[in-house]
Every structure is written in C-alpha cells, then in structure tokens.
Amino acid sequence: MGEWMIYGATGYTGTLVAEEAVRRGHKPLLVGRSAVKLRPLAERLGLDYAVVGLDDADALAKAVGTVELVYHAAGPFVHTSEPMLRACLQEGTHYLDISGEVPVYQHAFSLDEAAREKGIAIIPGVGFDVIPSDCLVKYVANQLPDATHLEVAVDALALGDGAGAGLSAGTVKSMIELLPTIGTLQRRNTKLVQTPTGAGLKKVRFPRGTKTVMPTSWGDIEMSYHTTGIPNVTVYLSLPPFLMYSSRLFSPLFLNLLRLKSVREFASRQVDRMLLGPSEHTREHGRSAVYVMVRNGIGETREAWLETLEGYQFTMISGVRVVERVLDGDYNGALSPSNAFGADFVLSIEGTTRYDQLPN
Ligand SMILES: NC(=O)c1ccc[n+]([C@@H]2O[C@H](COP(=O)([O-])OP(=O)(O)OC[C@H]3O[C@@H](n4cnc5c(N)ncnc54)[C@H](OP(=O)(O)O)[C@@H]3O)[C@@H](O)[C@H]2O)c1
Question: What is the number of the ligand 1 atom nearest to the C-alpha of 97?
Fold first, then answer.
C-alpha cells in the first residue's frame, strides 16, 4: 500500500483518523501548520510528521509530492481545500476530504476533467457527511430511475448527547463560515435556491422513532445531485426543537451579524474554547440515522432507512477504509463517495444496518 498523509492531523477528527490508521497498521505522514501540536501527536503514535502551511504553495506541493494520497482533515474547507486541491493536481496525488460544505463540493467537481487527465481521484465528503446519506440516496434512487424529487433526512443524534456535546469545534466553525453566505438551500429544477431558515419543518420516522426535522444546507444538497441528477432535492436535519423554532425568529439578525468577519472570528474563538468534541463514551455509544425518499412525476415513491455509528466514530472508521480502497484500486476523476465505492459501501462499516421497511 502506498504512502499517504493526513493534513490537519492535530484537529479533533484528524487525530481520530490518525489513531484508527495506526490501529489498522498504517503509517501516515502527519501534516499541519503547527510543530508544537504535531510533535507530541507524532511521538505518541510513532509516526513521522511535517510542518507545512497551506499558504506556502511550493512547500505544500513538495510535501504532497512525497505521497500517493492526501486525506484532508483541516477545515473550514472553504478556506483550506483550494490550495490542497491545487497541490494534488500539480503532483498527481489523490485527494480525499471530510468537507460537508456545498461550495467546496462544487469546486471539487469542477476539477473532474483535470483529475482524469492527471489520473487522480478527487473524492470530497468521505465522512459521516456524506457517506451514509450519499450511499442511501444511490440505493433508493436506483429503484426509481425516473425520480424527479428527492428528500434526505439526517438524524445525527438518533441516540446520544445533546447538540452541543455532539459536535466538534471544527464542525461548528465550518457552519459559522458558511451560514451567512449560503443560508438554507434547496434544489429546485436543478438550481440551488435560498429558502427562509426555520421554515418547512416536518416529521420524519427514523428507526428509533419519529422526529421533527428542518431543511438545511447539509452537503447532500450538492452531493446527491452529483450522484443521481435528480433535479429537486430537500435535505432535512433533526435538531433540538428549541433550536428549530427559534431559528425562524433569530436567523435574519444572526446571519447579518455573522456576515461581519470580526464577529465570525470572535465566535470561532469562543467555540474553540468551549467545544472539545464528543467524548469517547459518546462516540462509542451514540447512533445516527438517515431516511431517503424519492418520487417520480406520477407520484410513485421509494424509500429506505439506515442506522449507523455516531457521526465522528463513523468518520474515523470510514476515513481509513476509503484510503485503503483508493490506494488499492483504480480511481480517477472527481467522484461522490457512492459513485466511487457503490451504494453498499456504507454496509461495510460495522454497526450499519439498512432497512427497506420499518416494523409497524
Ligand atoms: N464529513 C464529516 O462528517 C466531518 C466529520 C468531522 C469533521 N468534519 C469537518 O472537518 C473539519 C475539521 O473538524 P475538526 O473537528 O477536526 O476541527 P478542529 O478540531 O478545529 O481541527 C481543525 C484542524 O484543521 C487545521 N486548520 C484549520 N485551518 C487551517 C488552515 N488555514 N491551515 C492549516 N491548517 C488549518 C487546524 O490546525 P491548527 O490547530 O493549527 O489551527 C486543526 O488541525 C471541519 O471542517 C469539520 O466540519 C467533517
């Protein structure tokens, strides 16, 4: 198996993936911008490390050129993916990331032809966002090839702690960066349109019960279109009820404030101080769920459900499995996870069950 690197290895998720890689016998190069943070991690895991900033294009290309694959874990990816994609294309190195950000997916897919020419794979979204939902979308859409409408609902806390304890700082900082620009998106007749935040709530039945869900700009709004071409997509997320109902009232003011860079920076610093990410106990005992429904022009529908691991646990395990597949396989071009590995790939992650029906 070839050499690979984890960029952003010192973050909450990068460290989990590095630990899982070592458990599975890999020796990834740990890379990031801070020697102070990298050195103790590399020593603890017995791995080599390299200090390279994303703003130093020459040094980045040199480091990327020493490996066959980059697993990019440094987000918000709106700020970090572009320089890494450039370096990967220049050096002919595969690129994977765990972004869930719509503009990042759009940019990655715009590089499909360049990736094919270089013979590299560009596969964004190889974490909980979006492997489980993307695989389920493909599975359900395959059953109704003339589907015109797609609904995806994600319950990241099917079993586990409340919203704050269930999120890492990096995830919340990525939302802070993205929310003021994209708001709440839905896909209508192939185009992305902005819709009022907090509107369109509905109830969805998941394997462990019914929950209220709210339309969001979760990555599937872009990824599922790439996977299936279905022109109308709404993606829902289950959130604590007080957050969903208050978002309608507070979101215009909140989004206006977040448009100010100084406010985003202040908020990100507070998040860094306050959110440590889910504990090991939460990761090991938490569960998450996904529901997908497609409909065609004459009202026929197909649906299915999935229950799987807690989101960060899933990301940790799926990340290393994806690396193994890409290094062992023959992948090129910009691909969604399910187009690269198939709808059943998610079932290879332990603790994952897919349902065609739920018991009454
Ligand atoms: N797809 C999924 O399901 C999934 C799952 C988990 C996380 N994520 C995403 O992954 C990202 C990381 O999450 P996390 O929880 O690991 O966050 P985190 O703990 O805040 O770690 C972020 C990492 O990225 C590095 N970084 C950030 N900006 C950088 C820049 N401009 N240049 C170089 N390095 C930079 C940080 O380095 P410093 O320490 O030097 O700042 C740190 O190593 C977030 O965007 C999150 O949304 C996605």
Answer: 1
Domain assignment of residue 98, given as a range: 4-127+313-341
Which atom from ligand 1 is nearest to the alpha carbon of 219? 1
Q: What is the DSSP letter of 345?
A: G
Q: Are residues 171 and 198 in the same domain?
A: yes
Q: Which of 98, 126, 269 to mutate to test the pocket of ligand 1 (most atoms within 8 A of CB)?
A: 98
| CATH number of the domain within which 325 lies | 3.40.50.720
Mean pLDDT across the stretch 54-76? 97
Dist. CA 221–CA 191, nearest whole Å: 10
Query: Do the domain assignments include residue 359?
Result: no
Note if the pTM is more than 0.85.
yes
Residues 236 and 319 both lie in one domain? no
The model's pLDDT over 70-99, given as tens digits with 9 standing for 90+, comes to 999 998 999 999 999 999 999 999 999 999
CB-based contacts of 57: which residues, under 8 Å, 6+ apart?
Answer: 83, 86, 87
124-139 confidence digits (pLDDT tens): 999 999 999 999 999 9
Domain count, the chain: 2
Query: Could you tell me if 163 and 299 lie in one domain?
Result: yes
CA pseudo-torsion sign 143, 145, 148, 153: positive
Q: 360 in a domain, yes or no?
A: no
For ligand 1, atom 15, which residue shows the shortest CA distance?
170
